[in-house]
């Protein structure tokens, strides 16, 4: 197992013949295909229908929600009222949850990306004792179901005095095994050994070589990993559920769930309209983040392709 | 109003009890030993001295109670946290107790879950604080649920004596009379479904809380607990009554296969396709907010009876506030409990839509005379209060009911899909309950 | 085997450089592994320890050796869950990865109108929190008042109810597919983007058509991504938890507390407080998952050899 898992699987030998800087002309501008577009669009529709449901139902009042066809508008257009309701309900606690989530994402996803970046680079470009075991251990540990580890983790964190603090959410989100794998692959592919050698010969230290020479080349990988970790942290639910007790530290997912569960208690006020509008507001920042990251991603890819 | 009057009487009674219990050591400070008596003065002193109190509860009306409490006792700082509803909350509580850190001083615990925490020694006995004096303050059903012998493990917060909530419009359209007995109920179920095939008298796809309450009303005693000795018999006479009736409803497809609290369920309650609910008296507030479009259509009738003319009911849901054994501010915590569940907090919660557990309020004329518009101006509290007086005595939950309820769908639930008879489902449930209990060190007999 | 297992070929000079600083690599990998040890390895070690004991509500904790393991091996509820996720794995993972791969190839081909739009929309479901997904799918699957019901009413169809029949496993498979098609698509797509242009040039010189380019260049080039995505999907299937757990309140009689091994471990731990047995189930599942991942890895390599 050790042998098998320790290498970045996209490994292959570099072409030895002289590289010409030729643009991927035929690859970059092939003829567009309507058929292919339609087929892809089918998958797109599959992905979008439930989201359309969310969008439409965010415009409905609580009574309309349960009395109208789900995939079409009905009654009063209450989107604005619902959004205002979300932002002001319970003294505007939604805003607090939003800021919490932001904190977890910035520190958690940012940290996870950084750790994965360093680790992936280390695995790709260095030989060191124990290297062969690293990825096998990571994969092996990931194979153990996390839900069953929740209680041991909780008890450990409680002993460390970390439960019910932001750290109990942030520290576990710092690990992204898939991110580690992706960075490893990217570093192997995107950073030529010759460039590292050249930097070393120029007398640059390892840190400087990494930050000034290699980091820019790994940009597309960084953006991809960042995207995955941001989404994972943004949607983190199970861990905060176990670790956090104080609603003031809840992320949006826990808050929405609390709102959703509210209707199921004696005397609880049903606020499904706010849950749905709140869900929409929760997804929006991710869409924006994706669009923003996408721009960097494009440029990162362009930068990456220059190497060839 | 009566509440204040009642509270004054309570205070006097407690003072009298103190005079008799002069031997009690008045240490006045934080942690009283389990056997030590704690005088009302001690509690009052703790309230005066103040401190921070951590309360875990999901009951929404407690927000206002806490605010008022802090205004009255400015030195006390109550942190009210909603750590989840029902099971999530118990998981959190169990984890905190297991870790021995972050345990709240006060926790909301539903009646059915109390034995699970009290038998593990996680909850403080409130009798030394004078809680025994409150016997007679609460409805017998709820008081029975929070006590175990002489020990008192919580103060009742609300109650759920059961009643028949029904959509009068649907009943009228189908030309069906409101059933007074379960036989009539079966007839009504047939008539309603026959009138419109999309309409059902009840939605039930197997709910442990509901089933146990039904067995309770029918006079069943499937669980008997004496310390760590547990007896389980899910085939006793009372249980059999329920099983027979429900088997018929299932066989004739007269129950909507819609899970409770889902959006489909609220939809059905709102549009009349789920014509009735047999549930706890806390339901009105949920109907008003979750099925607003049916406003004016719903009414409340007494729970259908097994014997014509009887008034036998059961409790469904409802919760108490309890103090954790791990709390080092028990006197202060008890001060809060008393305020919230026996003092001024009661009126505040009632105003917020809680259904009372306190007898004084159940019989309060103003309360009985309320005519909510949602129920077409019907004096529903008269019906609901009457139900509280009919709760069948002697019911016990398992000391691990939370677990038992979690495997209810695995066993009894299979009967609702038609794949096995209800009696067999109950037998399978009994088997899980027995084997789990024995594994956990109880002595379980069948 | 050797191809995958050996480190990337590097020039001799690099080898020499590296030998001078053999521990430098740990400077980069160290931070990850330190946190990893805290949040993964320590709880696993703790679970191993827990699995050797039994704690009772009445009677406290006692050392029971391997009793919990013996019990698990004879536990029909556990093995029925294992069977179910194996079935799920065999059907859902190929479907999901197949769609992901096709879409990634389509995006990469440059032959699509509105490529960026599709890339975003197909990835979007991954961004939807589980609580919200449950709300949406609970509605979609609703037989009486939901979308399935609407269609049955409108068109006179008689679609079976996804959550109240044996269709519940496919219904879960559909949600998982919906959530992760975009995720895997992005993995494949980003792997395709770093395929060196020189390889395509070679193909161009050889005059290879698009299908030939895909089978001879693109697929081999992203084989690593395919294998690793498969392995992570296997882990995901064996750990199937979120979706059944979210749908459970809507379909309690069809999604039992031991529906999947992970759900079983969760119920044991959180409803039954059987932490010890729960830890045992988790460890056995972990070992099983590693074995299957290992077999897949071997197969993946044999193809390459």
TrEMBL record, chain A:
Start-end of Low complexity biased regions: 1-13
Compositional bias (Basic residues): 14-26
TM stretches of this protein: 33-56, 97-121, 133-157, 169-188, 209-234, 270-293
Pfam families per record: BPD_transp_1 (PF00528)
InterPro entries: MetI-like, MetI-like_sf
Limits of the ABC transmembrane type-1 domain: 98-293
Gene3D superfamilies hit by this protein: MetI-like
Alphabetical keyword list: Cell membrane, Membrane, Transmembrane, Transmembrane helix, Transport
GO cellular component assignments: plasma membrane
Name of this protein: ABC transporter permease
Organism: Promicromonospora citrea
Native organism taxonomy: Bacteria, Bacillati, Actinomycetota, Actinomycetes, Micrococcales
From TrEMBL, chain B:
Name of a matching Pfam family: SBP_bac_1
Gene Ontology process terms (BP): transmembrane transport
Organism: Promicromonospora citrea
InterPro entries named among the record's database cross-references: Bact_solute-bd_prot1, SBP, SBP_1_CS
Protein name as it appears in the record: Sugar ABC transporter substrate-binding protein
Family matches, as PROSITE patterns: PROKAR_LIPOPROTEIN (PS51257), SBP_BACTERIAL_1 (PS01037)
Superkingdom in the source lineage: Bacteria
Keywords for this protein: Signal, Transport
Signal sequence extent: 1-26
Entry's family note: Belongs to the bacterial solute-binding protein 1 family.
UniProtKB/TrEMBL annotation, chain C:
Family: Belongs to the binding-protein-dependent transport system permease family.
InterPro entries: MetI-like, MetI-like_sf, UgpAE/MalFG_permease
UniProt keywords, alphabetically: Cell membrane, Membrane, Transmembrane, Transmembrane helix, Transport
Bilayer topology annotation: Multi-pass membrane protein
The name this protein goes by in its record: ABC transporter permease
Gene3D superfamilies: MetI-like
GO BP annotations listed: transmembrane transport
Domain ABC transmembrane type-1: 82-296
Annotated TM spans: 25-49, 85-105, 117-139, 159-181, 221-241, 275-296
GO CC term, one of those recorded: plasma membrane
Source domain of life: Bacteria
SUPFAM superfamilies (alphabetical): MetI-like
